[in-house]
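User: quick one
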Amino acid sequence: MKSNLAEKRDYVSSTNACKACMPLGASIAFKGVEGCVPFLHGSQGCATYMRRYLISHFREPVDIASSALGEGEAVFGGGPNLKQGLVNVINKYQAKAVGIATTCLTETIGDNVPAIVKEFLDAAKVEGPGGKMPALIHASTPSYAATHAEGFHAAVDAIVRQLAHPVARHSGINLLPGFVSPADIRHLQEVAKGFGLKATLLPDYSRPLDAPAGTSYEILPGGGTPLADIAKMGGAAATLSFGWTPYSQAAGRDLQERCGVALHDLGLPIGLRQSDAMFEALAALAKREIPSRHADQRGRLLDAMVDGHKYLSGKRAVVYGEQDLVIGLASFLAEIGVQPVLCASGGRGAGFRENLERVTEGLVRETVHAEPGVDFYRIAELSRELKPDFLLGHSKGYLIARELGVPLVRVGFPIHDRFGGPRLHHLGYRGAQEMYDRIVNALLEQKQSESNVGYGYL
Amino acid sequence: MSQMVFEERKDQFFETGTDKPFRISCDKQSLAGAVSQRACVFCGSRVVLYPIADALHLIHGPIGCATYTWDIRGALSSGPELHRYSFSTDLGETDVIFGGEAKLTRALDELIPLHQPKAAFVYSTCMVGLIGDDMEAVCKKATERHGIPVIPVMSEGFKGNKRAGYYAACEAMFRLVGTGDTEGIPPMSVNLLGDFNLAGEIWIIREYLERMGVSVVANITGDGRVADVRRAHGAALNLVQCSGSTMELAKMMKETYGTPFMRVSYLGADDMAQALYDVAEFFGDAQAMERAKEIVSEELGRIYPRLKRLRKDLEGKRAALYVGGAFKAFSLIKSFRLLGMKVVLAGSQTGTQEDYEELASICEPGTIIVDDANPLELMHCLIEKDVDVFVGGVKERPIAHKLGIGFCDHNHERKLALEGFVGMLNFAEEIHATVMSPVWRFTPRRTLPRLEEVAA
Ligand code: SF4
Ligand code: SF4
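Assistant: Done. Structure below.
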């Protein structure tokens, strides 16, 4: 297969990146902690750009503070600004936690954030709610090292490392879903509840980034994983962690190593088999049958897969996005008879190709072409040659879909050109069902609009 | 409201109609820890140069700065669309250690032959400022190798705010000006500075001018072309819209080439008409003035009946605006007046002392005037003034919506033409669409008793 593709061109530059930067991912994760304000240690511009990017997807206010370094600080170090900024954020937001993420600038000048935070705490006179100093979490997130996906997980790992310690065992479980939609998080909560499990879901930005209409602008939106629950993660009966890449497994590993919490590493529960794996794992942990409503969901999904199979059989798709998401989507596509002809990501985490092969094995007729570390210029080149029937991914593939005249089924992040991105489901039988319907409909719509007959029954 | 303002920012607020002397401080670095709505130097440069459609815009830095600026604005081109790509040197860890010059050189060497641009702008970002790449030298060599101008834009993010970025962009463009042939440029000719052709706006303005017999040499920069910028010094007059962004270029051109400039605004019927009259007056051309008057009455006649109907619904509603430059705020205030609406809050990210003084003088008593606001402050003002519609950029939209307040996007990212007479009507329709929506009747702000204390 590979020999048919445009000879691999190794571009030095990036054109139309298929990734965002680390602190953006970290900010999303920090948004999922109770009362937490994301705080970027760097110059003002980065924070403003990221807020704009996030707001276009979530359509929610996303406050991200910045230490707003200027020229002087860039030379002499940003410590004083960081401390001053913390005082301001804590006072004005009454934050229960501040999630400090570094940027390229402060990583390059070599600011030692843990040391600065320690100095700050030693000298602190500010008092948070209830006279308590807020939790100050810091993650190292220089974008020149990796993508927003790694940034997200670096923050999750930082939260766990800095706030969860060995404590008395309890029967609850930890659920580390990875970078999924607010709707997915809500769904996982219902699923866990259905099993009678007390699950600590980290991070939980389902409310902070998808909040109900209010009477005022909540400066600190409610919701988020409660800090008290995070503190108890070290005593959980088990951790269920979703994600195939080493960075998405880091926090679970850490809980296992430091606190002895049993770890169940699963992929993102996308499609039939991966969802089965999640439901089975939950059933085993809860020592219960899978609740009938989920068994029914599965049955309906299968029923739909039968009813729709001919619409999809033999179709070819280009898939792109974060590595974990792409692997999950490829697994799902293989199940529904679609050949993922190109699986692309801006990320370069280990095991991408191997995992893609593993999840599609026995279901697809061609080897899946895996492209880690690419940009949309390259994805476009390959797509022209591979002639997919549709694209599956976020909004940024739109120009390719438009050029090729094929549908783009929007999933993941960012969705800047459609409405309701945060309310899309990807996970579980429910997510698979939704995506299945949307994919079939996209192809039907294409067929219908291209037909000169205009059939009303399809 | 006073307790919601950061102590350090108190002097960046002002309420008109009190007997305090007017004083507001501005052009400060944003306060650490406050969530500023401001961007960086790079952002300012990118905004100004971006619409030059046949140039390569290469962002030298780590990926984020490029990702967040990929095709975010509606700056249209009638031809090439190279500006819609997002090129980055995507600096990695080794580049931080060993410097990014080699990578920049290779990036230029692969991109220029591939895309055949007429010029290349290379933007420096924070990191480049730190690792100390000699962009000037790299660009100079690339210019020689490729035979097109390769121009460094000194836009390291931390070296100031957006304003500094405008300046860096003007400096970069000024290197192009004066390098082209000015043959055949008619005496009644202008350059359009500070219009970015969002949703095709510059085409509207060009059409008015052409009807007046005035030709346009260079669009700077909406639907811009490198060759036009190179011969821009041959124009008789620079029309400068958007107070901050291109004023420096106008000043540089005046100093070096003696090209006079004139500030104009194409927003709102009043200012649009004034702009056309001013141009005709400048050229002292009776025929042009005659035509300007014809255009104004014809265009107004076209939009007036509909405007009148919209105004009926909008009369007495309250508006707040928070925009990039203060000059835009003036036009907006007048536009709202034309719709029978009251402006109760006016603010900008980058206004100058002069701007704010003028703003204060044209606003009604009780209007809040603010420089470089953050969401907290904006929220309090919006609630206190019980606003019906808020005009701002994408970052302000969710604030308004969460509060149950209508919103109108008036930023560089808008996809709706708001300039010219037709733009005035679009603006009115947009305001009407949001203010008159039934949704506000169901939002908690109206259905629940108003909270006495808001999140204080
Ligand atoms: S890549 Fe680095 S410098 Fe650029 S926006 Fe992201 S954190 Fe800031
Ligand atoms: S790194 Fe600097 S130049 Fe890039 S977005 Fe951040 S502040 Fe702006």
